[in-house]
Automatic annotation (TrEMBL):
It comes from the Bacteria. InterPro entries: PhoX, TAT_signal. This is PhoX family phosphatase. The lineage of its organism: Bacteria, Pseudomonadati, Pseudomonadota, Betaproteobacteria, Burkholderiales. Residues 244-256 have a biased composition (Basic and acidic residues). Residues 238-271, 440-471, 630-659 are annotated as: Disordered. Transmembrane segments: none annotated. Residues 258-268, 440-453, 630-649 have a biased composition (Polar residues).
Amino acid sequence: VVDIPPADRLLGFSAVSKSLADTVLVPAGYTASVLYALGDPLTATTPAYRNDGTDTDMENRAGDHHDGMEFFPLSSTGSASTTANDRGLLAMNHEATTDEKLSSFFVHANGGTMSLPRPAAEVDKEMALHGLSVVEVRLNGGKWAYLKDSGFNRRVHQQTDVELSGPVRGNALVVTRYSTGGTKIRGTLNNCGTGKTPWNTYLSGEENWAGYFTRAATDDAARGDKSVVSLKRYGRDQGASSRHGWETGGRDDKYQRWNISKTGASSDGSDDYRNEMNGMGYIVEMDAYDKTRPIKKRTALGRYAHESAAFGKVVAGQPLAVYMGDDSRNEYIFKYVSNAVWTAADATPADRIATGDKYLDSGKLYVAKFAADGTGQWIELSIANPLIAAYAGYKFADQADVLVNARLAGDAVGATRMDRPEWCSVHPITGEVYFSLTNNSNRRAEPSGSSQAAPDAANPRAYTDMKGTSTQQGNVNGHIIRVREGAAGAAATGFTWDVYLFGAEAGAAAASVNLSGLSADQDFSSPDGLAFSTATGICWIQTDDGAYTDVTNCMMLAGVPGQVGDGRKLTLNYPRANGTTLSVDTYVGKAATPDTLKRFLVGPVGSEITGIAETPDGKALFVNIQHPGETTASSNVGDPARYTSQWPSNAGYGAGKRPRSATIVITKNDGGRIGT
Ligand code: FEO
Ligand code: CA
Ligand code: CA
Ligand code: CA
């Protein structure tokens, strides 16, 4: 266990300036090196990545769009460890691919097929690039490298068997042609944020999976049941087309399953894929150390657009709390509380997946309701709650139905609609829970239609035309909210909260937009990845922005936060068309200072900074650079001069000039902890 240094010994580096350069910038005294990129081989016999669109065998290579990531230390003998600093496994999410008009153009020779039907070979490649990977990394002679021939290396993709575990397992809602008992599903999809369990396993959140499925234009009538309500609530209206057209790859079941209408198109006639989408949308648990153990979707934590999963402070004899967000405009924040209470011996169990069964398959799911007075409530999503049992909008059959349709259950109890909850993380000292709320174009002072919401205390910004344009509306720059649990800790049903930071441009109006007083060394927009270091206590904040990218590429900042209630109450006023004023009270933490918030990294052009992991001593920091160059037009795929980014080839890594998502490792030149 590393002692966290006092706050006055943190952030001793010079802030990195905002930048539009096609490179990774870190402070003087630090080194960032590319470690593991899209297509890198994961077996001894897989050829090097040519990076010209002709590569094959994607099941044995790094996937695309590196996202959330965790580090699993390995002892010198190759056993699971919690303390090793020179050898370990990186487990990570491969969320998506860089696409335009159906095709993932950078991974196909001529940009791929931009119309339907998609060729099977292209679909196979794209399905293989989505999922998870595990890769061994080692520190040798002061340099980190990944091992292409490690026996630990692993890929999980859309053809990998994954078990359904917990209350939804075996329910009629997840019976498919593939699993008539409703016990398993193929693959895990659009994996975004991550988490690490107190028993040393990997958690992965399935986020924008709904977009991969298609529905026929007349499917509502064909179904004629309440599943239509569920599908609409999760973003699949009838007639919705799929992101890549994978369902057109052929008559084989592995393609047809992406069409969740009853189509009659499969090769053997048993073509009912109507429940396929109910198998996506969960927190997934994997034992990174042991590829013989099943991967499990932990259905007790609910089904929605998952990001990270953060454990509250672990206390012997108390239940475990897991905090989670649903990243879509105006969706909810959730907490799962285990029925089992924590036993210290479970920190290093003989069977890690069985330990997951113990803590993650049986518990209560809550949704957050924030009040205007700075307090809030966790409302249990139980079929026994009359608001849920008698909900007019959807007739829940049982608790499994509540979990599969957690969004509808949140609607039933009147949960607070948030500004896109992305990652969450728990402060290692105070135990307070931080949630990034990335932005929300549907937060309006005068909402119109059910998709828009008025500002409230917890989501108080709804300014328009911040830059004098008509394209930026709502909460353009996002904020980070934090929650302090009541005296019952993990099991508390009441909390207090405030806003840790409001994203803003340094020059924006201090009274209405730049509410945290950000200066040029620390201004940011659209917080997304967020994780506390357990070695330094630094709150790392990563951005996925579109609003400030005319001035700077996406970035990572280091924060040293105070705690809930250390700031002030403020009132925001919005003039309405009828001449009246809408006043919203909220609470913001201490204003940022150069000692408490500093920009640490700026990424290459078109990239999002996401995913962060560290060695236990905090001296190596792994960060993912996702989709550099995604702003490239697919028609320019043959002309490297017209790529908006050539990273990481311009950093000396790998063949070809096509941009690649990649993991970097950051070390301090004096060997110290990162961010000190
Ligand atoms: Fe995959 Fe919500 O970011
Ligand atoms: Ca994210
Ligand atoms: Ca995002
Ligand atoms: Ca992204």
